[in-house]
Design a protein that fits this description.
With 248 residues, the chain is an alpha+beta fold. It is built from eight helices and ten strands. It is 28% helix and 26% strand. Strand 2 and strand 3 form a beta hairpin. It comes from Oceanites oceanicus.
């Protein structure tokens, strides 16, 4: 998801300014509808939706005009493929509670990627995580619930906070075990909260210490998503396009 899609219109499809084009992506379990913006009379631009699995979906280009029925202008197939962000999210999801794997991820901290790369990583991995089909019993702390909070260990929350990943941290907070992870010390005696404070991540520290923290608009420079039941609406600020996602 979140890649730019360009649509080239044929001569007969180039119409007046009052016609609105949008794309409908129909997958096996999820459907997305995206608005478009006109670059010129023959070209449209939009953002590809984040999908729930890697599959080929049907995509329809629709045209809407006030007082007229909606027309399907063209249909095509569109393939969602597994990318690095999806691989990273899957790896992190499977290593929740796995100390060997979580300690391995700490080498990323030593390389300290530039802030722009961290923002990009945060947006992409959080997006992929949101669309993973996590098992019903999945927990931020791993599947072994016999471990008590007094046992020092590394957690997914430590990983996200250490790199300053705001969106991923917010996502993990909403999952089972997310709040419990905040009070767990690692082998250096640090909790995710103390890590955020130590590294000067003020917004992250605020997120971890507020009882009902919401994902603030201003934290996402690329997009903002509002969820409501089986639906979500996403605004991509860069292109000023909107995306409605619903269970098919």
């Amino acid at each position: 998801g979140d890649s730019v899609i360009t649509v080239q219109l044929t001569e007969e499809d180039k119409v007046e300014d009052d016609v609105v084009f949008y794309l409908v992506f129909t997958g096996s379990t999820v459907q997305h509808c995206t608005s478009t913006r006109k670059i010129n009379p023959g070209s449209l631009e939009t953002i590809s939706p984040g999908h729930d699995c890697c599959e080929t979906v049907k995509v329809a280009l629709c045209a809407s005009r006030e007082g007229h029925p909606v027309l399907v202008v063209a249909e095509e197939s569109f393939q969602f493929v597994q990318d690095e962000a999806y691989d990273a999210a899957q790896f992190l999801a499977t290593c929740a509670g796995n100390q060997q794997a979580l300690n391995f991820t700490r080498f990323l901290d030593r390389s300290r990627p530039p802030a722009a790369d961290v923002d990009f990583l945060d947006e992409k991995v959080a997006l992929a995580f949101r669309h993973l089909k996590l098992p019903a019993e999945w927990n931020v702390l791993g599947v072994d619930q016999s471990l008590t909070e007094n046992i020092p260990r590394e957690t997914l929350m430590h990983f996200a906070v250490r790199l300053g990943l705001l969106r991923l941290t917010w996502f993990l907070l909403q999952q089972p075990g997310g709040r419990g992870a905040l009070s767990i010390h690692n082998n250096e005696g640090a909790t995710p909260v103390s890590l955020a404070l130590e590294r000067g991540y003020q917004k992250l520290h605020q997120l971890l210490t507020e009882e009902e923290a919401r994902e603030p608009d201003s934290w996402s420079t690329l997009s903002h998503t509002v969820h409501s039941g089986d639906y979500s609406v996403k605004h991509h600020r860069g292109l000023d396009v909107y995306m409605l996602t619903a269970e098919a």
